[in-house]
UniProtKB/TrEMBL annotation:
TACO1/YebC-like second and third domain boundaries: 86-232
GO cellular component, one term: cytosol
Molecular function via GO: DNA binding
Domain TACO1/YebC-like N-terminal, first and last residues per copy: 6-77
Superkingdom classification of source: Bacteria
Protein name: YebC/PmpR family DNA-binding regulatory protein
Transmembrane annotation, as ranges: none
Lineage: Bacteria, Pseudomonadati, Pseudomonadota, Gammaproteobacteria, Enterobacterales
Protein family (similarity comment): Belongs to the TACO1 family.
């Protein structure tokens, strides 16, 4: 889910929302791990996409047994096929939302997404309606307070970095989407191995000011979308 707003605030809110619905987080990661394992080898050492999903699952504190169950399901020849999707739309006062999905039933998903937009004060748009106002961005977050030093590490490794900031005791790095994994590798080579976030995020290019009433509507829309099982 990618709503318009301040970058770091959105990422924290997204993670907090996920942390508040533990069983749903586990289920969503289970699907994502299964899908990645089915699309390649069910071994993270030979399947980089699977390895990345597992790393993100561990950051979200998904238990090992949930991860193993999803991989075992893929190894066992599960016949479910999951398809990625993206749905774009509008909330109150020109606010914009992108919902990214992973589903085994596209018709169900689009019907659910359309219903949520309609019931929660939004309007679903056509493909590309709002995504041009977002930048696909690599985001890396870990504990730290010296962004200048981190920037030098990434610069020396020739990582294409958009920004490095320190916010609330965390180093927050924004990279070109294509350099996310390169950035993670450079940090690991420098001895930084514990991350709270390593994600590709659609970052809004601008902010939208909402009245308290509109903010309540917007948050209700985002919460309802986040609560859908197919929305990642």
């Amino acid at each position: 889910m990618f709503p318009v707003g301040r970058k770091w605030a959105n990422i924290v809110a997204k993670k907090t929302a996920k942390d508040g619905a533990t069983s749903k987080v586990y289920a969503k990661f289970g699907v994502e791990i299964y899908a990645a394992a089915k699309q390649g080898e069910p071994d993270p050492e030979s399947n980089s996409a699977l390895k990345f999903v597992i790393e993100r699952a561990k950051q979200a504190q998904v238990p090992k047994h949930v991860i193993d169950k999803a991989i075992d399901k893929a190894k066992g020849g599960g016949d479910e096929t999951f398809v990625q999707g993206r749905y774009e739309g509008f909330g109150p006062n020109g606010s914009m939302v992108i919902a990214e999905t992973l589903t085994s039933n596209v018709n169900r998903t689009i019907a659910n997404i359309r219903t949520i937009f309609n019931k929660k004060g939004g309007n679903i748009g056509a493909a590309g309606a709002v995504s041009y106002m977002f930048d696909n961005t690599g985001v890396i977050v870990f504990k730290g307070t010296d962004p200048d030093h981190i920037f030098e590490i990434l610069l020396d490794a020739e990582v294409d970095v958009r920004d490095v900031t320190e916010e609330e005791g965390n180093i927050v790095i924004y990279t070109e989407a294509t350099d996310l994994h390169k950035g993670i590798a450079a940090l690991k080579a420098a001895g930084i191995t514990e991350f709270s976030t390593t994600e590709l995020e659609m970052i809004a290019q601008s902010e939208v000011e909402l009245s308290p009433e509109d903010l309540e509507i917007f948050e209700g829309l985002v919460d309802a979308l986040e609560d859908d099982d197919d929305v990642q």
